[in-house]
Every structure is written in C-alpha cells, then in structure tokens.
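Self-study notes.
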Amino acid sequence: MKKALVLFYFLVFYATSQLIWWGVMLVQFQPQRKPMIIGEGIFFLLIFMWGAMRLKKLFVREQKLQQQQQNFLLAITHELKSPLASVKLYIQTILKRDLDKEQQQVFLKNSLKDIERLDDLVENVLMTTKLENRNFNLPKEEFNLTELVEQIVDRLQKNACRTQVLKPNLQENIMLYADKFAISNVVTNLIENAIKYSPPCANVVVKLANEGNGIIFSVADHGIGIRDEEKKLIFNKFYRVGSEATRKTKGTGLGLYIVKTVLQKHNASIKVKDNTPSGSIFEVTFDKNAK
C-alpha cells in the first residue's frame, strides 16, 4: 500500500515536470515542431491517466482487503470469547451451586455445544492455513459419504433448534474417494450457513444422491437469499453477505472460501441457486470417476 502511494506521488511529480518541459519546448521550438510535441504530450497524459486509474483500483482493493481482515479479527475474537465465556459460566454455576443431576446434565450439554462450536472454528482456521500452503496435499481415501453426512446432520440438529429443522434426504451407502476431513468441513460449513441465515426453526433440506456419473449433495434453506451480484463474491476469503454495519449473523468469512477451495482440489463443482419462495440452494457435484 505504501509503495503504491509512493509510486502515485512520483507519477504526479513526473507528469508535472513533463508538462512544464513541454510548455517550454512549445515556446522555444519552431512552429512546425509544435504538433509533434503536442502529440507526445497527449500520449504521455493518456499513459498517466491509465496508470492513475490502475493505482486507484489498487488502493480500493487494498482498503477493502484491510477492512475485511479487520472484520475477520473482530469476528474471530467474538467467536472465541462468546463460547468460552458461556462454558466458564456453566462450569462456575455447577461448582458453586447445589444443582440436581438433571440441571447439571443441561448445563454440561450446553457447554458441549459451545465446545463443538469452538472446535468448528479452529478447524476452519487450520484448514484455511493448510489450503494456502502450496505443498499441502489432501490425503484421499474411500469412505461412506452417506454416513458422514448423517453424523454431521445429527450433531448440528441438536445444536440448532428444539423443533425439527434439518430435513435429511440421503441415498444409502454412497461412497466417495476424497479427503474425509476436508469433505466433512465442506458439509459442516454448508449446513451451518443454511441454519445461520434462516429464520428460527425454519426447515433446511439436506439431499445426497447418485445422478448419472456424479454424486449430488445439496443444502436448501428458506433464509434471506443471495443477490445475483454477490453469488460469485461469497466464495472469496473474508467476504460475507450484506454490509458490515447491519450484519447480525455470526461468522468469520472463511467457510465458503474453504468449501470452494476444497472442492476445486477434488475436481468437484458448486452452484448457488435461488430457492422457492425464498432462500438459497448450494449444490455440489462430485465426479464418481475422479481419483
């Protein structure tokens, strides 16, 4: 950022000096050479304007990146402090008060939910670090994708709402050759996002099926939806839907970035479609023959 600023000021200084030089030349040289000097001046000004526009775009991009990084630090600080404070309060209450076994079980279960939330956050940060390492290779193996999705749905259902929220529609015994840990992260992020951006106790439909030469995994919600101009941006690192000033949902902006990057490394694709009457559908397609 500082280098770009120095370059910009250098261009301004250089352009000013050149304009002064051309002015002197126009006065001193013979009239027949004036068109050539004017032409050179116009050509330089066009190059200068092009460079200035490029620098402006660089400034804007750097400012956005810095703002996103700052928002990420604020978000991850909150995401860490909130469950830690909750777990601390539950444990202090259990230790200081004479609670019956049923009350203790409730407090311990709530503490476990917060610990699982912290675990997911740490996994996202670790996965992001691994994916950005060019030497990192995803260790692949064949596993039962249906069982993996069922386990994640069961865990997230317990943490979501007392009424039925997650509606799984899973074809049995679908096998996939992939990195089990990375795919688990993909499934978790997609389902958690659907819950996060949905109204309280709304239905989230999770589907898994064989279709032709592909395996289709989809998550459909009835939340706020995603505008067309944001559908490509949501997979950028740190990007989150909506404005930072009005956004109330929790998150770090890493989830969908991890999803997209992991799927690319598995030669899989993801589409974002509008749901009816509201919400979004994230549809992942795995190639059965990919190894």
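Second protein, same conventions, sequence then structure:
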Amino acid sequence: MKVSVIIPVYNSEGSVAETLRSVLAQTYKDFEIIIVDDGCTDKSIEICQDLDDARIKIVHQRNRGLAGARNTGIRHAQGEYLAFIDSDDLWLPEKLAKHVEHLERSPAVGVSFSRSILIDEQSQPLGIYQMPKLTDITPEYLFCRNPISNGSSVVIRRDVLKEIQSEENLYGEVEDFYFDDRFRQSEDIECWLRIALQTNWKIEGIAEALTLYRVNMGGLSANILKQYESWEQILVKTQVYNPEFIKNWGNRARAYQLRYLARRAVRQRSPELAVSLLHKALKTHWRILLEEPRRTLISCGAAYLLWILPPSVYKWLETLMMQITGITQKRRIHNEQVKSADLLTVERQLL
C-alpha cells in the first residue's frame, strides 16, 4: 500500500459524501481510505457506509478533535505516504498522482503540499487561490507565514511522522502521538513547526492548485479570538524545547498571525475586530510593513474600507478585487506549471 488517505469526520453529513467521492476519483489508485468517526452524532458515517469501496475502512472513537482523529488514522494507516483531507474539503483527481511523483522524485522532501482553490459553502470556486511560497521553506518562514496553508493540502512520508512521534497516556492507555491532541485549533502549524525544527526533512510545495479548500464566510468573532489563544500556545510549547527560536521569531510570527486573523475578521464582516487586530500586529512588529508591504497594506485597506463604506459598496469593491486577484493568480500558476514541466523534462533527459 503506497498511500493512506486519512479523513477525520465529525458531523459533516452535508459535505462528507462529496469529499469522499473526490478521493475515490483519484487517477492514482494504490491507496486506502481511513475514515475516523470522531464521535459523530449525525448521519455522516451512514453516508460513508453507503459508498461501497473495498479501500474504505471506518474507525470509531469518542470525540477527540481534529488532531486526535488524525492521530487515530495514522495509527491504523498502512501506507508509505499519508495524505490528509478534512471532511468538507475536496481534491482534484490528479492530486495524489502529483504528490507521489513529487515525493518519488525528491527523496529529501518529507512534506509535500499543493496550492489550493478557495470554494464557498456550495462548493463553488471563489475565483482566488492560496498562493504560498513553495521552496526554501525555513522554520522561521513557516512559523510566520505557514505556506502549507491548510491540512487538506499535504502528503507526508511516514518516516517524517516517526521522527516526531511521542508516547503519552491521555485517554487511559499509552498511545503514539504525532499531532498534539491538546490543540483543538492551530494543530496543523504546531505539527509542521515541530517537523521543521526537529527533523532534517524538507517541506516543499508543487505549483498546481490541487486542493479545494472550503472557506466559511460567516462565523463568530469569538472563534477568531479562540484561534489566537490556541496559536499562542504554540509559542508556549515551542519555547520549552527551542527557547532561542521563540526569542528570535516569536514577536514577528505573532504579528503575521494577527494580520491573518484580521483578514478573517474582514471576511466575517467584523470591521472593529479587524482594525483592532491590525493595530496590534503593527504594534507587535511594525516591520511587517517593510517585509510584506503589499499584503499588509491590502489588509489594512480592506479593514478600514469595511469600516467606513456602505456594505453594498464594499461588496462591489471586494468582488472586483477578487476577480483581478484571481486572474493574476491563475496566470502565475500557469506560468510556474510550464516552468516546472520544462525543468522536469530536462531532468529526465539528463537521466
């Protein structure tokens, strides 16, 4: 078995069938699917059981959260590579094939990720992409920007997870842990950061946008504040095993996280919170204006315009900017794909 696909499921009856079908539609076929029933109380698991495929295995447990469900999936996985997808996200058919090719071609790469297309709650593309840096990802860059972007974009070598594995008794018996079950939010970046700091594996992305990442345009301001509190716990944990890293990069990473959360507040139409978070970000590390002036100024502009403009005018302006951004991103992805294909052709000719 080459790949194990792990799908944590908790009360996702409205989306899980579409997610599972997108995995079953992969052009690469040598994989198993481990669905982790994380204490569902709706019909999610019944829906999964209706999709008859010998590659599907369902594991049941009491609710442990996303990190705990992923850990359970890892313990049951047989594959050399482990792929994760949340039960409301989707994959394009060639995703696994592209990641397996990437990892086979690049033995030093331990974590392979893709860019993502943003979709709405009806699975319609928003016309924009997550466009992170793909190579030369240092621990400090990962901590500040999190280029992996979302947990449904990664495929990881089993050997990488073995290197960060720990044994603990959290639920009445000793088990292996990879993600930290104590985190109910920010569990992804905490895990990626441990990989970057504690192993020699490279983290690298591929140019294609192969993940469809569902964006929740609603939500509560309290959820943003809870996410920030959870993220702050990463600093506390990391400081224990690498205090020098936090001393050097903690405030800078904090500023970037606050800026990211301000953009989320804009999406949720919470202008006061967005402006407050941006002010805090600039106070924490004002140099984000110099390090990433375009993104920082766009974030500030969006927050203040949301605050002062009538909702209808802001909506029109936002739609226009998203269309312009989407066209630019799509052109960039195409150009990078062509460049990557040309480089791969040259490598094969040399071999």
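Instructor comment on the second fold: The longest helix spans residues 311-350.
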